[in-house]
Design brief:
The complex is a heterodimer of chains A (about 400) and B (about 350).
Chain A lengths: L1 H19 L3 H36 L29 H35 L3 H15 L3 H15 L7 E3 L3 E4 L2 E4 L1 E2 L5 H28 L14 H19 L3 E2 L2 E2 L4 E2 L2 E3 L1 H28 L2 H9 L4 H31 L11 H13 L2 H35 L1
Helix pairs in contact in A: 3-4, 3-8, 3-11, 4-8, 5-8, 6-7, 8-10, 9-10, 10-12, 11-12
Chain B lengths: L1 H18 L9 H8 L2 E5 L8 E2 L5 E2 L1 H14 L4 E5 L5 H7 L5 E6 L2 H6 L2 E3 L4 E10 L13 E6 L4 H11 L4 E6 L2 H9 L5 E5 H8 L8 E3 L5 E10 L3 H19 L7 H7 L3 H6 L6 H4 L6 H8 L3 H8 L26
Parallel strand pairs in B: 1-4, 8-9, 8-10
Antiparallel strand pairs in B: 2-3, 5-12, 6-12, 7-10, 7-11, 7-12
Helix pairs in contact in B: 1-4, 3-9, 3-13, 9-13
The chains are: A mainly alpha (about 400), B alpha/beta (about 350).
């Protein structure tokens, strides 16, 4: 216990110590050095920008960002917000950015779930399961991500049936080599009501959970989770589904069901095969790293923790959930940030297989259209830096949060 | 892998632009090429008919012959460093001096000519954007493609042409936009799309070896004119003249009946004054360009006239000259006079 506390202090208290430690003169010198460094960096950046501007002007290349407000004049295959050839290039950028974010979010969730399973499987006492997990990691970690994406793309395309031989579910969901077509709620025909109902249901659940927590606190438990079960979980789902269902029936929301057209299916919500294969490719590749992180985190925990839990009579799954996982999380989160950042950046590989994300649309199509590589690259890079920093900031915040609760 | 290399070239190009930009104008391109001892020619790789590698491991094709044309004019022999480019990198490489010329299928359009700091050197090929479809789809013309999913490659004016055409005709479509043409064709072949659109001749070249070629059809309709011209930097007018007149020499040679086979004999025996000026028997046309006077002779001797190029590269693919015939045969190629 003592050792653990000292370790925590080294991690968390160092910044406080150093502020009191050094003398005033040293601090002043530091400030001067840092200001000088900052000035030099600023000057270099300014000079490079100036030279570039001059060179571009002499070469007769347009250099302004006015092009953002021009008519795009091209179509995009997947758009989460309305877009057509008449829209501006700035809007095309937004469409592409949303596609990037969607791909990153879905891939991160899938990679995390798969990675956790693989990591735990490697620790499994079952010889076959742990060896299979090891083989999985050794294979998929050692093949370049781009190759895996190509592989899955052409596997997906070649295995799925043609449009006229689609796999059907309930006559409203269709799967073929043009994508997965599911019914969508028609905009403006009651979907606001469903959204409102879902929000209402969520608020009710939140309220009920608070009530429950209070009840538990009164009964002497610290947190509701310590019981390991949540008697209200199934009721929550029922409540949500019930409220939404009633509104759909009463409000008469219209479903936009995919229907057969001259070429394949039209209408509904489409998940492109490019999207599906990217999610598979990126998740399977990054899950290998997450699996190793999870495994190392669990291995780093003292055996005494498992043994203590076992001697208390906790079953295996509760030992993992209540004793090991919260402690392992402290070790998992910092390296996990790196994996998430890498995954986010490698969504740019999507440009190779026609998924319309930022690099494909902006550095590809738009750059060809307006021919201003310097500006376009600068904007794209700035957006990647910004979003990466947001991800890092969020995970660092989360890291601090869980680290503190464990230490206190 | 492709992407990584692409990005690397791209970044290199931009770094060029940052740091070496100031050196570009100091020496002319011709002097730079001479000093280097090699022409840096941008090419697009693996486009049968235009640019490919033959069984002997040599680069062959229509685009390659353009590189050779310029090299023959400058050096009197073939001394070329081929720089593979992609649509992502080519403009940056040109602007930054990474390549001297790009004869790889760039459409001569207003915006490109006016706002990119680049210049065209005449039209060397009259191409057009068309559609590849499956025969069993029952598509007879572009008008039948309303609502279709269409595979397309970035990098040219293709995307805009298609959007404009479908918009004008009140038709809708879903694009599947690939960074390179081969991936787009593979996806079309795997039935990802109802149609594939690109320049018709390069499409014909690429699908020539498909085992199921007979099940596919290139529609006769052309939705855009794609006049291809070689690109050079705008700040060196003499280099542009060299490229323009080198390409023109091949068309003039065809009109004057001079070809790779008979050029030596014609040079010896001709009494036609224009042929004599072209081949450097009289006059100092080469010197005025900063070249040797027999520059055009070297072009015809080493590369051939326009018809030689066509028969070497496109005739085996079954592509007829059509619009690309000489004006005497009802085509569009007409030589500027050597006088």
């Amino acid at each position: 216990m003592q050792a653990g506390k000292t370790g925590a202090c080294i991690r968390h208290c160092r910044s406080g110590d150093s502020e009191q430690g050094p003398g005033v003169s040293m601090m002043k010198r530091d400030v001067v050095y840092q200001a000088a460094l900052l000035f030099i960096i600023g000057a270099v950046v300014y000079l490079v920008a100036l030279t570039t501007q001059e060179n571009l002007a002499r070469l007769g290349v347009d250099s302004s960002i006015d092009f953002l407000w021009k008519r795009a004049g091209f179509e995009i295959g997947q758009k989460l917000i309305p877009f057509d050839a008449e829209s501006t290039i700035a809007r095309a950028f937004m469409v592409a950015l949303l596609n990037t974010l969607l791909l990153a979010a879905v891939s991160i969730v899938c990679a995390s779930v798969l990675g956790a399973i693989i990591g735990l499987a490697r620790l499994s006492g079952n010889w076959l399961v742990s060896r299979l997990a090891t083989a999985y990691i050794e294979i998929f970690r050692n093949i370049p991500s781009l190759l895996q994406i190509f592989f899955w793309y052409f596997v997906v395309l070649r295995t799925l049936p043609r449009s006229d031989e689609s796999i059907e579910f309930f006559n409203c969901i269709f799967l073929n080599n043009r994508g997965l077509f599911v019914p969508a709620v028609s905009p403006g025909q009651g979907w606001e009501w469903i959204a409102a109902a879902l929000f209402f249901g969520w608020a009710m659940i939140y309220f009920l959970r608070r009530q429950e927590r209070r009840r538990h606190a009164a009964a002497g438990f610290k947190r509701a989770e310590t019981t390991g079960t949540n008697p209200l979980a199934s009721w929550n789902l029922l409540l949500l589904a019930g409220v939404a269902g009633v509104v759909i029936l009463v409000g008469g929301a219209q479903w936009d069901v995919p229907r057969e057209a001259r070429f394949g299916y039209r209408g509904g919500l489409v998940m492109m095969p490019e999207f599906l294969s990217l999610v598979v490719g990126l998740s399977m590749y990054n899950a290998t790293y997450i699996g190793e992180i999870v495994r190392s985190a669990f291995t780093s925990l003292p055996r005494g923790q498992t043994e203590a839990a076992a001697s208390l009579g906790l079953p295996r799954h509760l030992t993992i959930r209540l004793v090991l996982f919260p402690q392992a999380l402290r070790v998992i989160v910092p390296p996990l940030t790196t994996v998430y950042l890498n995954l986010f950046k490698s969504t740019s590989l999507a440009a190779a297989i026609a998924y319309p994300e930022v690099v494909s649309v902006f550095v590809g199509t738009v750059n060809n259209l307006v021919g201003q590589p310097v500006f376009i690259m600068a904007i794209t890079m700035a957006v990647y830096v910004f979003i990466s920093l947001c991800i890092a900031l969020f995970l660092n915040w989360y890291n601090r949060k869980i680290a503190l609760t464990v230490v206190s | 892998m492709i992407k990584t290399i692409t990005n690397l070239t791209y970044v290199t190009g931009i770094i060029f632009l940052f740091f070496t930009g100031s050196q570009i104008t100091d020496a002319g391109t011709l002097e730079e090429v001479r000093e280097r001892g090699k022409l840096r020619c941008g090419i697009v790789e693996s486009s049968p008919g235009f640019s490919s590698v033959n069984d002997a491991g040599q680069r062959v094709g229509f685009d390659i012959d353009h590189c050779k044309t310029i090299s023959a004019a400058v050096f009197g022999e073939i001394r070329i460093e081929y720089v593979p480019v992609t649509p992502h990198t080519v403009f940056t490489l040109l602007q930054s001096g990474g390549i001297d010329i790009f004869p790889g299928g760039a459409t001569w359009s207003f915006i490109r000519d006016v706002s990119m700091g680049l210049d065209y050197t005449g039209v060397y090929l009259y191409a057009g954007q068309g559609f590849l479809v499956r025969r069993d789809a029952g598509v007879k013309s572009v008008a039948d493609l309303d609502g279709a999913t269409i595979c397309i490659a970035q990098g040219t004016t293709l995307e805009q042409n298609m959007a404009d055409y479908f918009d004008d005709h009140g038709m809708s479509y879903t694009p599947v936009t690939f960074a390179d043409m081969d991936k787009g064709l593979q996806a079309y072949h795997a039935d990802r799309c109802d149609a594939f659109t690109n320049e018709r001749m390069s499409t014909a070249g690429r699908i020539a070896l498909w085992p199921d070629r007979a099940e596919h059809l290139i529609l006769d309709d052309v939705i855009s004119k794609e006049p291809f011209g070689a690109l050079v930097r705008q700040d060196d007018p003499r280099w542009r003249d060299i490229a323009l007149w080198s390409f023109n020499a091949r068309i003039a040679a065809e009109e004057l009946g001079v070809n790779q086979e008979n050029v030596d004999a014609v040079r010896e025996n001709t009494r036609n004054a224009e042929i004599q000026r072209l081949l450097g028997v009289h006059g100092e046309f080469g010197e005025k360009l900063g070249l040797s006077n027999d520059w055009a002779y070297h072009i015809i001797k080493l590369v051939g006239n326009y018809n030689d190029l066509w028969e070497r590269n496109f005739t085996p693919l079954g592509v007829r000259r059509g619009l690309n015939a000489s004006w005497k045969d009802g085509g569009l190629h007409s030589a500027l006079p050597f006088r």
